[in-house]
Amino acid sequence: MVGNMYSGTKPINELGGECKHNCLYCSTKWFRFMYPASREKYSGEYRLFEHELKKNHNNEKVIFVCGQNDIFEESVPDEFIRRIMKRSCERNQDILYVFQTKNPARMKDYEDLLPEIYILGTTMETNREEYIKEFSEAPSIKSRMDAMIELQEDGHPIFLTHEPLFDFDLEEFVEIIKKIKPDKVFIGADSKVYKYPKIYNNLVLPEPDAEKILALIEELEKFTVVEQKSNLPRLLGDSQ
Ligand code: SF4
Question: Can you list the domains of the chain with their CATH numbers?
Answer without folding.
Answer: 9-239 (3.20.20.70)
